[in-house]
Specification:
globular; aspartyl protease; PEPTIDASE_A1; 74 residues; single chain; protease; zymogen; alpha+beta
């Protein structure tokens, strides 16, 4: 299983990315990629983590947010 903020997502597939095309990956510092696309856009038919969270009733609403701070690291 995969842990996201204390929620255990069972049977979640994941993979290692060894090549990322595009300028965004060259210009930005990052330490991972979390796929949150629609299932129809997922690579190899893998169910995205948030869709598994909804299917397993781990979240009340089909809604997520991202907060990105412009200050410091971490």
């Amino acid at each position: 299983s995969l842990q996201v903020e204390g929620l255990a997502v069972s049977n979640q597939q994941f993979a290692e990315s060894i090549s990322e095309p595009g300028k965004a990956f060259l210009d930005a510092e990052f330490d991972g990629i979390l796929g949150l696309a629609y299932p129809s856009l997922a690579v190899d038919g893998v169910t995205p983590v948030f869709d598994n969270m909804m299917a397993q009733n781990l979240v009340e609403l089909p809604l997520f947010s991202v907060y990105m701070s412009s200050y410091g690291r971490g």
